[in-house]
Amino acid sequence: MLYNVLAAAADGAEQGGDAMSALIGMVLPFALLIGVMYFLMIRPESKRKKQMARMLNELIVGDEVTTRGGIIGKIVSIKDDTVTVETGADKVRIKFVRDAISSKKAPISD
């Protein structure tokens, strides 16, 4: 394949502008592929990360949260990067790092 491009470039040098069109014909599909990958993979992932960071910063006491491990409970205190979650009927309190929270629901009224 590379040999064909080099051969086309050598022939194009003799024929004028054909070498440039051969080079553009090879580079253009790769540029389009990179553009498509950006819009289908990279951009949505960065949007999701921003949304998750915003959700973690907006946590308040009383929010019902789910951890990455599947534990569901109500936030009873927040200190720096630590969140204390109360779970179950026996009101067990467990401390988590803030990043361990995967989702939240609206605040629970007592």
Question: Could you describe the 3D structure shown?
Answer:
- With 110 residues, this protein is of the alpha+beta class.
- It is 49% helix and 29% strand.
- The protein has two helices and five strands; from the N terminus they run H-H-E-E-E-E-E.
- The protein has helices at 2-15, 18-57, and strands at 63-67, 72-79, 82-87, 92-97, 101-107.
- It has a five-stranded antiparallel sheet with strand order 4-3-2-1-5, covered by helices on one side.
- A hairpin with a 4-residue loop joins strand 3 (82-87) and strand 4.
- Helix 1 (2-15) packs across helix 2.
- The longest helix is centred in the middle third of the chain and has 40 residues, at 18-57.
- It is rod-shaped, with a radius of gyration of 27 Å.
- The model has no long low-confidence stretch (mean pLDDT 85).
